[in-house]
Design a protein that fits this description.
InterPro entries: BTB/POZ_dom, SKP1/BTB/POZ_sf. This is BTB domain-containing protein. This protein has 2 domains: 74 residues, 2-Layer Sandwich (Potassium Channel Kv1.1, Chain A), CATH 3.30.710.10; 252 residues, no CATH class. 54% of the residues lie in helices and 4% in strands. The chain is built from 14 helices and 3 strands. A hairpin with a 2-residue loop joins strand 1 and strand 2. Helix 10 runs antiparallel to helix 11. It starts with 12 loop residues before the first strand and ends in a 14-residue tail after the last helix. The relative contact order is 0.09.
Length: 338
């Protein structure tokens, strides 16, 4: 079969990787790599016609090789650059802006990205209801085929960097946050984890390649998950109730309405039953509910609800600041060797 992502009909050589063929142009790859130039010079077409395309089999992992091809063709890692003798600095500089776009360092940009991903997921859910879409070999049924994978980005951040490396790459905290909210059983390279009672086949789930991470990177990830849970619980049980109780303009009746809603709705959203922490998403949902909940609209004034929204938004911003400044994941220790 030929990969739809790199199937150039005017290509003049096929690269065979993990059973998939990538039809590419000798000139483009040879221009960037002496190794490719030598491979193509030695390639034997094994054909009876000069018009037929030669095939070169490569024994590499398919996913990073696809990204390498994208970079060589001017699209959106470095794992294969050394092997094929491609100049690393220029490739690194070319990739970073695309990575930064996918993993923003401001909360506003993160929220915009989340809205975009939600729209993509909703469209994919609708497409999957169409039998013709599901049967088309050129379509996808998972978001992973069109969205970036976080562990690869985390690994990328440590390649060709001095130790220690500071300041942090701007894209690193967002990638860690996303990885922290993914369940441990959604692993690209361990299908045995992706079955059983944990897997919801009606839900489009993102996955990750945690095996790419070093022991120290995994330690930072675990510290971050623990900090996200701890800070969420502290806000749920202490920060929010205290802020409501100390509001000097709301009536006691309004406060009881808000605190009842927080106990029944807010705490459940922030602390469970979700398996992994995602306080940024849960708090955003709560600020929307403050504007739409019938019980709140009836029992608390719009002015008080707006002040409550500000309390939640300030906590969201604090959580984000702790993430991007390296506090949540203890990133001061990230770049030191294991």
């Amino acid at each position: 079969m030929t990969s739809k992502n790199q199937d150039f009909v005017d290509g003049d050589i096929d690269l065979l990787i993990a059973g998939h063929k990538y039809r590419v142009h000798k000139a483009i790859l040879s221009e960037n790599s002496e190794v490719f130039a030598d491979l193509f010079a030695l390639a034997d077409p094994h054909t009876n016609s000069p018009e037929e395309i030669a095939t070169v089999e490569l024994h590499d992992d398919e996913e990073p090789f696809k990204i390498l091809l994208h970079s060589l063709y001017g699209h959106d890692t470095l794992d294969l650059a050394d092997k094929y003798n491609i100049e690393v600095k220029s490739l690194h500089a070319k990739l970073v802006p695309f990575i930064q776009r996918d993993w923003p360092d401001t909360l506003a940009a993160w929220d915009a990205m989340e809205a975009h991903l939600a729209a993509l997921e909703a469209k994919l859910q609708e497409d999957l209801k169409n039998p013709a879409y599901r049967e088309d070999p050129n379509t996808t049924d998972v978001l992973d085929t069109i969205l970036p994978e976080p562990a690869s980005v985390i690994r990328f951040s440590t390649q060709y960097k001095p130790v220690p490396a500071w300041p942090l790459p701007r894209y690193l905290p967002a990638a860690l946050y996303h990885l922290a909210r993914l369940p441990p059983y959604v692993d690209v390279d361990d299908p045995g984890m992706n079955i059983g009672i944990y897997w919801d086949f009606n839900e489009i789930v993102r996955s990750a390649k945690r095996e790419l991470l070093t022991r120290r990177q995994l330690m930072c990830l675990m510290i971050g998950i623990d900090n996200l849970r701890l800070n969420s619980a502290r806000f749920a049980f202490e920060g929010f109730p205290t802020a409501v109780a100390e509001d000097g303009m709301a009536s006691e009746a309004e406060k009881r309405v808000i605190l009842k809603w927080w106990t029944e709705v807010g705490m459940k959203k922030i602390l469970g039953p979700y398996e992994m922490p995602d306080p940024l998403a849960r708090m955003r949902e709560l600020t929307e509910e403050l504007r739409t909940s019938a019980a709140l609209l009836e029992g608390a004034s719009s002015e008080f609800r707006e002040r409550v929204r500000v309390v939640i938004d300030k906590e969201r911003q604090k959580i984000w600041n702790d993430v991007v400044e390296g506090e949540t994941f203890s990133l001061y220790m990230f770049f030191y060797p294991d």
